[in-house]
# Entry
Amino acid sequence: MIAINEDTVKKEVTSFEDLWDSEFKNSLVVLDDQRILIGIGNKLQGESMNATDPKVIQKSKELLMDLLPNIKAFDSDSPKTMLVNGEAKAGIVWGAEAYLAEKENPSIKTVLPNEGSNIWMDNFVIPVGAPNKKNAEAFIDFILKPEISAQIIEDFPYANPNRAAHELIDEDIMTHPAVYSNEEFLKKSDIFKDIEDAILEYDRAWSEIKQ
# Structure
C-alpha cells in the first residue's frame, strides 16, 4: 500500500499512478520486491499482479523504469524509517510499516490505492520428517493462544486471522486501514499465485530495472 507524509506532499494521492508525478522526484521509498513492483505495473495496465503475458511484463518494466527518478531507495526491511525521518515523502510499503510510521510521525497517512494491491499471508509449516515435530506443534499452539497472538500484533501489526484474539487487540489496530483494509480494496487486490516459468520474465525485467 501507499504511505504519504501529508506535511510534505502537496498532490492528492489516491492511486499508484500518482507516484509517477514529478513532485516525488528522488523522494520515494519502495519495497525491494519484484512481484509487488512489477505487479503494480501490471495493475496500471488493468492486468492481474499474476500476469504472465511477456508483453504485459515488458510494459510494466518500462513503467517502472520511468518511475526510477522518483525512487530514492528500495527497502523491504524497514521502509518506515525513511518516512519517519523525512528522507522520503511517500512510499510503497508493507501495511504494518505504514501503521508504525504513523505512530511515530502522525503526519504519515495510509492510502489504499484505487487499483488494489496484493494479498499475502505468512504461515507456519512443519517440514515432513521434522525431528522435533511435537515441539513445533507446541510452539504453534502457543503462538495461537489469543493473549499471545494479541501481544504479537502490538509489535508486528499485520492483520491477524485469530478471531479469538481480536477482542484483546487495541481498537486502533483493528480499525486502521493499513492493517485491516476495507472490503472494496480487498476485492480489487490479487492473491499471489505460482506463475511457473513466467517468473523468469519477472527476473529478467527486475534485473534490468535494478541494474
Q: What stands out?
A: DSSP finds ten helices and seven strands in the chain. The domain at 2-119+191-210 is CATH 3.40.190.10 (D-Maltodextrin-Binding Protein; domain 2). The longest strand covers residues 2-5. The chain has a mean pLDDT of 95.
